[in-house]
Write a structure and sequence with these properties.
The complex is a heterodimer of chains A (488) and B (172). Chain A has 488 residues and is an alpha+beta fold. Chain A has helices at residues 42-46, 54-57, 66-80, 87-118, 130-137, 139-160, 180-209, 212-219, 264-267, 304-310, 317-330, 340-360, 412-431, 439-450; strands at 3-7, 17-23, 29-36, 228-233, 245-249, 255-259, 268-271, 280-283, 300-301, 380-387, 390-398, 404-410, 469-474, 480-486. The chains are: A alpha+beta (488), B alpha/beta (172). The interface between A and B is large, with 52 and 53 residues.
Chain lengths: 488, 172
């Protein structure tokens, strides 16, 4: 009889999701699916609104990455109004964006994904969380994580009026300039962030890379997935979070596409499957080829490792050195090791911090020329940024009065949704055999998708109450064969 | 639907700082109930120097920034439960009612109990008392700014009850 294993809800992830693992009669994994409850009616909700309201509305879609939504929305407005932001405005926007990256990436590593490594995937689940990390690495370091986060949030609050929900977002510029006094604080925060980023990378290398057991885990085939990769790059094809063209490379690293995000519909298509509400994406030119990796696949991944894979390098020197070291150790570029998303995340945080230093030192930062007012309604705008989790696209169209007639969003986790299913399946195949579903094994499966840092567009802010975590094994008739629970 | 049984009014020491925190997402329908209740309180209540009203679309660790430094926090938020109570039912909860929490759901959606525990371990001043008014809702995945009728009905009732409680001061 075939069995079904459920992991519900998914721990340490934003939003509501469920994993279903189907076993065959031998008790080995046949298939795995990652199901998402989607938020509904967004387009309908937005229709008829003035398009300039969008930067204020979209941060509420997600309590985790409001800044990227706000930024993509603002850039879409630039296009809707046919206006190029001023030099100073771009610096300020990038400053805001980098501060968010630093904060978000560190929070993810230390609180979300890091516990798997720092405390250990086989540790007691009661320890394998942020409180366990604090125990293991010590109060001083935990305090530094909170401190770097606080300093970055202070910058976000300065520029966007409140973190994490930024307000404002104007076509052609920003609403608030920077003073020379603020520049000093910004530089101090940037320096602090660079030092902490270097420390975090050293910690990762000491704890993970130099530990043969962990390194084996990273290189393990159960956590390997051969896909295409997509990310935003600058004019030198180096990683850029805020602006640039989108570059796609194939599993061997050859450039497959390089396009202005305005033409995303020529390259990215959406696919509907009955078992999940999320619309899966794939490379249009290859057609939908199903859930498979490697040769013949049309799936691609986004996010930290994908960005590094899709680029020719990092845009800042210390991050570049770390990039080179990572690929040397992984032995391959592109690297297909899903757990290396965590490593790439730290390298990106370093680039974001170094870029903050560059911006803090730019004389134009404090100029009063923060807004280009030559607005001309074009009625269509596509704004694209790299959210921490991957490529994010906001597409708006309006009528002659600037009221929305269409809004389409492609969020990072959509791009990764199909690869997540595959990663879960592979991890499950590697660690669940003969129908055995022990606690540690289930966490190995969760590790596969936590690496993607997926954000399920959550309806956050409801009190979680109790968090039942139960795995139910059923036979083909639906009878319960076994229940495994934790936290109850 | 009338709210759950009234609790005894709590008394606020003159030196005690209290936060009334309305949580929710106002573009996801009934999810925004917490913020709506706090807005309703603001409309009619004169305020008090030791009591702060905050509306926040926040969850998890970010709440550390909001609740640090207060002696008492009253959280008003939506809740989804598996029991048979109808939408609009108001639960009076404490942190202990929230169950085992050593498995954080996510760093950004850490539940309140773990967030407070984290704050304590890091040496921040965390509230000694947390009172939770949780209003049952049934749907929070549909984009809309409107509340459903049973939940809308609770807004003025709960606001009035909280104002009565906030207005009771223990002078000693």
């Amino acid at each position: 009889m075939g069995k079904r294993i459920s992991i519900n809800p998914v721990t340490r992830l934003e939003g509501h999701g469920k994993i279903e693992i189907f076993l065959n009669d031998q008790g080995d994994v046949e298939d795995a699916y990652f199901q998402v409850t989607e938020l509904r009616g967004f387009e309908r909700f937005c229709l008829g609104r003035p398009v300039e309201e969008m930067p204020r509305i979209v941060p509420n879609i997600c309590g985790v990455c409001p800044t990227p939504h706000n930024m993509a929305s603002t850039k879409a407005l630039d296009k809707v109004y046919g206006v190029e932001p001023t030099v100073t405005a771009k610096l300020i926007r990038q400053l805001q964006y980098n501060a968010f990256y630093v904060e978000d990436h560190f929070i993810h590593f230390f609180f979300l994904g890091g516990p798997d490594f720092v405390v250990g995937p086989n540790a007691d689940p009661a320890e394998r969380n942020i409180l366990g990390v604090i125990q293991k690495v010590g109060m001083e370091i935990a305090g530094k994580v909170i401190e770097v986060r606080k300093r970055c949030r202070d910058i976000l609050r300065l520029l966007g009026s409140k973190a994490p929900h930024p307000e404002g977002g104007l076509p052609g510029g920003v609403s608030r300039g920077i003073t020379e006094e603020e520049r000093v604080t910004i530089k101090e925060t940037a320096d602090y962030a660079v030092e902490f980023a270097k420390f975090a990378l050293q910690l990762f290398k000491n704890v993970v890379v130099r530990n043969p057991e962990y390194l084996d885990l990273v290189l393990n085939d159960a956590y390997n997935l051969n896909t295409y990769y997509m990310g935003m790059v600058d004019e030198n094809k180096c990683v850029n979070f805020y602006d640039g063209n989108i570059r796609v490379v194939n599993p061997e690293g050859k450039e497959r596409a390089l396009f202005d995000p305005q033409f995303y519909t020529d390259h990215i298509a959406e696919w509907v499957e009955p078992w999940t509400y999320i619309r899966l994406t794939y490379l249009k030119v290859l057609g939908w080829q199903g859930l498979k990796e490697g040769y013949g696949s049309s799936l691609y991944r986004v996010g930290p490792l994908a960005r590094l894979n899709a680029s020719k390098g990092m845009a800042t020197p210390e991050a570049q050195a770390e990039y080179e070291e990572m690929y040397a150790i992984l032995g391959n570029k592109p690297a297909h090791n899903t757990l290396a998303f965590h490593w790439a995340r730290l390298i990106e945080a370093l680039q974001a911090a170094e870029d903050m230093q560059r911006i803090a030192g730019d004389p134009a930062l404090t100029s009063k020329d923060i807004r280009n007012m030559n607005l001309r309604l074009t009625k269509k705008g596509i704004g694209c940024v790299e959210a921490a989790r991957g490529t994010l696209i906001h597409h708006y169209e309006t009528d002659d009065k600037g009221l929305l007639t269409k809004a389409n969003l492609i969020v990072a986790t959509q791009h990764n949704a199909a690869p997540i299913c595959l990663s879960v399946k592979k991890a499950a195949q590697g660690f669940i055999k003969g129908g055995e579903a022990k606690e540690g094994l289930l966490n190995m499966v969760e590790m596969a998708f936590r690496a993607y840092d997926p954000c399920l567009g959550c309806a956050t802010h409801t009190l979680p109450g109790t968090m039942p975590f139960e795995v139910v094994l059923r036979d083909r008739q639906g009878n319960v064969v076994e229940r495994i629970s934790r936290g109850l | 639907m009338a709210p759950h049984k009234a609790t005894a009014p709590f008394f606020i020491m003159a030196s005690q700082k209290t936060l009334v925190l309305g949580l929710g997402n106002t573009i996801l329908g009934d999810d925004g109930i917490g913020i709506r209740v706090v807005r309703e309180i603001r409309k009619t209540w004169a305020g008090h120097p030791q009591i702060e009203l905050v509306e926040a679309s926040l969850a998890g660790m970010v709440l550390l920034d909001v609740i640090t430094g207060f002696d008492k926090v009253i959280v008003v938020d939506a809740i989804m439960t598996a029991d048979l109570n109808p939408a609009g039912f108001v639960y009076e909860l404490t942190l202990d009612d929230l169950g085992e929490v050593l498995l954080p759901y996510a760093s950004h959606a850490l539940d309140l109990k773990t967030t407070i525990e984290l704050g304590k371990r890091l040496g921040y001043k965390m509230p000694a008392t947390v009172q939770i008014c949780a209003i049952k809702i049934e749907e929070n995945t549909l984009f809309t700014e409107a509340l459903t009728p049973p939940v809308e009905h609770v807004v003025p009732i709960l606001a009035e009850r909280l104002i009565r409680e906030l207005s009771s001061l223990n002078p000693s």
